[in-house]
Write a structure and sequence with these properties.
Blueprint: E1 2-3, H1 11-36, H2 40-46, H3 57-73, E2 76-85, E3 88-94, H4 108-122, E4 128-134, E5 138-145, H5 148-156, H6 166-178, E6 191-197, H7 207-216, E7 220-225, E8 232-235, E9 238-241, H8 246-255, E10 260-262, H9 270-273, E11 280-288, H10 290-312
Parallel strand pairs: 3-4, 3-6, 6-7, 7-10
Antiparallel strand pairs: 1-2, 2-11, 4-5, 8-9
Helix pairs in contact: 1-3, 3-10, 4-5, 6-7, 7-8
Length: 316
């Protein structure tokens, strides 16, 4: 068992001190009583027989109650397994400088963001969604989660950077899927990758290498092309052509048994996950169980009160 607030367990020392004080008080009272009635034979005749060991029971139960309530105050936690849908969709979004071209209104990147958000919002809530951003390298911005709002926020906050590493984006997505849970190595979750880009790979491993890795992992990569052959971006006052490379994205999709789109809407992208399937696994979480200890403490408190009333006609 673990605790969310283990520092509060020091109060158990106070309970132990209270138990020690009870023992000391008993001994002191016994000595005083013995001095007052030195004739033991006479005392045995005139004094009524007491409850004996039973008179200590309410105090013992009371100390148990205090101990249990201190443990509850420390917020004990137990590990519990809860079911979890494993179906996962990774969104890989190109944030290279070429995505700032305005041949797609308002820009390629903003159009891609809008399409990605629309896609996420249409996904079933039980699906896990992750986000990978890539320019000259790729990184997991949001690990697969059912909190789709977090993914939406991650998409909206993306900014542009230099170069384009499409292959690295696929590899990062595959790694995120492979580390989804402890079962992923032997029983990979059903998954899809949706990659939004203008298709011009300029850094990292090639899309062909990424496609081979995706095929080996049995994960389809669907691609969405944003841009036109006439696209340009301004760099240091000069217009640089950045034509969309739709054929490269289409090859990546077809090689992995995915689908290829051009500036698709969220509604069109429903085809991406229609056949994804379902797989329910389990995850271990820490769940607070202080209510169990509070309940046991209340039972102990009532037991101490009843015992004290029965044997001494007073509350402890």
């Amino acid at each position: 068992m673990s605790f969310f607030a283990p520092d509060r367990l020091w109060l158990l020392a106070a309970v132990a001190g209270l138990a020690g004080l009870y023992v000391v008080t008993l001994r002191r009272n016994r000595k005083r009583y013995g001095v007052r009635f030195s004739n033991v034979a006479l005392l045995d005749k005139v004094a009524p027989r007491g409850p004996g060991w039973r008179r200590h029971l309410p105090a013992a139960v009371f100390l148990v109650m205090l101990s249990v309530l201190v443990v509850a105050f420390a917020r004990p936690a137990a590990h519990a397994k809860v079911p979890r849908e494993r179906a996962t969709v990774m969104i890989a979004l190109d944030v290279s400088n070429s995505m700032s071209a305005t041949d797609v209104d308002p820009t390629r990147l903003e159009a891609a963001k809008q399409g990605a958000v629309a896609f996420v919002d249409r996904l079933p809530v039980r699906f896990n969604v992750g986000l990978v951003a890539f320019d000259g390298s790729a990184s997991v911005v949001v690990a697969p989660t059912t909190d789709h709002q977090t993914v939406d926020n991650g998409i909206r906050g993306l900014q542009t950077g230099p170069a384009t590493a499409i292959g690295e984006a696929v590899f990062s997505s595959l790694e995120a899927i492979a580390s989804f849970d402890q079962q992923a190595d032997t029983n990979p979750p059903p998954a899809r990758i949706v990659l939004l880009s203008d298709g011009a790979n300029t850094a990292g491993r090639s899309p062909e290498q990424a496609a081979e890795a995706a095929v080996a992992a049995h994960i389809a990569v669907s691609t969405i092309a944003y841009g036109t052959p006439e696209g340009t971006v301004e760099v240091n006052g000069q217009l640089i052509p950045v034509p969309v490379d739709g054929p490269a994205l289409e090859r990546l999709a077809k090689t992995t048994n995915g689908a290829y789109y051009e500036a698709a809407s969220g509604e069109e992208l429903q085809k991406v996950y229609q056949d994804i399937g379902s797989s329910v696994g389990f995850r271990t979480i820490r769940r607070e169980v202080s209510v169990w200890f509070i309940g046991f403490g209340l039972v102990a408190a009532f037991s101490a009160a009843v015992a004290s009333l029965v044997w001494s006609s007073r509350l402890p």
